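Now for a chain:

_____
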Amino acid sequence: MTCKYTDKILGDLLTTNGESTLSAEDRSHIDHCPVCRLAYNESRQTWSMLDNLEQATPAPALRMRTFNAVSATLKAPHAAVDAKSSRIKTFALPVVFGTLSAAISLALLYLAPIKLSTPGPTVTVIFLFWIALYAEVFRWLSPEAGNQGAISQWIARASLIAMSLFLVFSFLQPVPSCVAMCETATGSIIGSGVWLERNAFCLFGMLYAFLPTLFATVFSRSQAVMRPIIHGSAAGLAFLLISAPGIILQCPEWTAGIVVSWTVGALLGSLGGGTIGTWIKVRGGLVSG
């Protein structure tokens, strides 16, 4: 046997902690309805028993578990938003900054005194590759806890500073101009000095990479405990990678000998500049807190 008014009457009692606030109409219904009268009397007895119980303080462990459960429930929506924001910062922002950096780099090379002769499809491929390199470097700038995260940030900052200096050098004195200087200098010294010619290209490549990397590793801000050989070399290699598209764009018609000579020089210059610059930074106490 049921009654449609039972839930309403018990709900009124629940919202008032058992206090009787029933209307005259509800009381008249209870007097004539055995179902509601039974439910009402049992509910009143329950509230009466609860009123007579002594108040007890929950154990600390129980309070902590309850607090953690409530906190987790309240933070769940915010955690989802934070996770989405973290994904955006990790993937989207580096791609955006990488695209802007690649576009600026390409524009500076096209504005340089020497005209680029690289075919259009090749430029497109190099541009996309440049975006990927820049995006990866910017991803290293994301904040991470501990010394390892700080080192990654320093390597990224140093390589970007070195790349900026490389672009300035390329704008003021493009790589092909340096190659022409090599050819003129070696040709005036020795008519067919192949050994000297290739070493001159190696020397120019070394200086082209050494100076930006040295400056960048010395003056790039760092909060990490660094090891000059390992971390300086890593910064130099990172710079060498992101500068490679700029070299390819400026010198698409290089011979194999010049490519090998310049690449070896650039590799030595990047590693040497990064290592020496980091050593100067550490020994000179230039690591900032």
In short: The chain has a mean pLDDT of 76.
